[in-house]
Each structure stands twice: as C-alpha cells, then as structure tokens.
Amino acid sequence: MSANPAASFTTDFATALIERHRFEEAFVFWHARHADDAPGALAALAALSREAARGRQHQLAASYHAMHTALRRGSRWYPGMLAERLLPLHDVAVSSHRLRHDAAQLAYLHQLGLLGDAFPPIIARYRRLAARLETRFENRQLTRHAPARPDRRALLSTDEQDAIDEAYDRIIHLRPTPCVAQPFSSHALAAARRSQPAHGITVIDDFLSNQALDELWRFCVQSTIWFGEQGHGRLGASYDHGFNCPLLVQVAQGVFDDGRQLLNIRAGKHPPRLPGESLHGAVEGYKVQLWLTPDTANLEPAGGGMVVRDQDGRTRHIPYRQNRAVLFDARLAHGAASCHFRDDHASARIEVALLYASK
What we know:
Layout: H1 5-19, H2 23-33, H3 38-54, H4 58-73, E1 93-95, H5 96-111, H6 119-144, E2 153-155, H7 158-164, H8 188-193, E3 201-204, H9 210-222, E4 228-229, E5 235-238, H10 246-254, E6 262-269, E7 273-274, E8 286-291, E9 306-309, E10 315-318, E11 325-329, E12 334-336, E13 339-340, E14 350-356
Antiparallel strand pairs: 1-2, 3-11, 4-5, 5-6, 6-14, 7-13, 8-11, 8-14, 9-10, 9-12
C-alpha cells in the first residue's frame, strides 16, 4: 500500500496479528506507531479496510474497521488499554431521547453484571441531563405553542458535556460475537439465491440458524453502538462506528454466492411506538432486511414490519416476524410500518439491513 518501508512494516505486522486473532495486540501496536497522528491513523485504517474489502477479505476488512472504531470511539472501558489517549469529543449535540436510551442500556448491562460500580452514577447523570433538556425544550415550546419533541438535539454547555464526556458517544461495551458453524437455516440460502419473483420481493422466514439469531440479537442489545439519531426516536448503528462483529460479517458475506459486492451494513432500533415511515427508495442495489427482536415484544403482531411498493405498483404490507428476511430491489419505495412494542430495553424493535450491488 505504501512505498514507505516503516509504514509497510506497520501494516504487515498489524495484519499478521489480526489474522492470528490477536486484536488487542494489533491495536496497541498500531496506536503506538501513530501516537502523534490520530487523524492519519484513522485515514490509514479506513484505507486498509477498503482495500481488504475490494479483495473480498471481509473479516480482515472488519478487523481494520474495528480498530478504526476503537480509536475513534474508544472509552476507558473499551478497548480499555489506552484510556489516557482517547480522542476528545467536540461540540456534542444530544437529545433527551438518546440520553434516556443510553441510560436504559447501561442500566441493563449493569444488571447483567457486564458493567461495574462506576456506572450507576453515570446513569444518574444521563437521566438528570435528559430531564434538564426536556424542561428546557418544554419552556421554549410553551412560548411557541408547539409540542416538545424528545428527539430534538441541543448543544451542551461545557459543564454538561464534562458530566458525560467519558462515556457518551463512546463504545462502553462491545459484546464478543464470533462466527458460528452454521449461520443460516437449512433452507435460507437456496431461497435467497433463487431467481427474484416478478414483483421483486422475496420473504424468507427462519432465515438464520437459532444460534446465529440469538448471538446477533444479543450483540445488538448489549453493544453500546447506537450513535445515529434518525428522527422520531429512531436510532441507527453503522458498520463504520461499531456495528461490526465476526458473526455479522460471516452472515453478510454468506448470503449470496454470485460474487456481488457488499456495499453497506447497518442496523436500526425503533422506540416502543412509531408511526409508519414515508416510503423511500432510489438507492441502487439489492437489500436484505432482517428482524431480530423476539415476537413476544411485538404488541401488534399484524403490524410492525414494513411496507414495499412492488414492481407492479402494488403496495405490500409485510408483518413483523422475528428472523424474517425481506429481500428486494432497493430502488423500490419502502419504509417501516407503524409499530407498538413493549417498552423495555431488550424489547426494542431491531432490524439489520445489508445492501449489495446489483448483479
């Protein structure tokens, strides 16, 4: 990649460590070699990941992405060995909804014994700040005669940012989720690789194996990777910012066998109640959308899924089912249906979206 012998040695040695599953050693080595040039380190890791992806070395690409994320969004708890060299966060804009979500997730992880006694005070600070923001917005809205929205974001004062800076917008916990022997159910791949029906939509139930489904759902519920805010209380997780584990990459690269390129991996999490989305499309590619949350969390079983306008112009309503995959041309107009799920952290509606290049 580089004519610089020192840079080539750094890359080759880090790659050798990654290929031997010695991620922490690779990260420490890489960080030490780029200690005085964090932006350069981030750019180099992103370039290495793209290069590996072009060569269809997906697990290697994912490992470089993981190092990028650890450097960009690391905390004193993850990866933990470089707490004194964390990159600072600047001009953080937050919403009360995001703060309450993050507080609920940290409380859930603390209850599971995955976080230590440092976290109850952090959780309390999140909740106090969320209440303060809600009061601030309510007072503003009273003068404007408009309802306050909990997903409205505001820049924090220096004192407010200092109160949450060590944890907010950083990875606190990333659940280890390795590959499994059998990621798909016995019928899933044959159904996914079959010729697309004329209307352009394929629905496959029981898509993942039971083990892969459970592991991937737990990864999404436990990992503190929900950094994106998408309006109406929806949160997003992206491959570039922590939505990345060996099992996810194994699933994404295993769906098709025709050499099509994987373009994007993302996840979405919905609040307990959400109105239906406006239909959108016009993205070139082929999409696989997969739902992970157990059906027992869905309080309206006939809904909660998605709406797609097929190639014949008909609007199709596809109900939510755990482990249901919907495959379709991403140019088709589509959006999430209205949903009503139980109001607790582990019951949030979670979807995974994989975008591939068209054949």
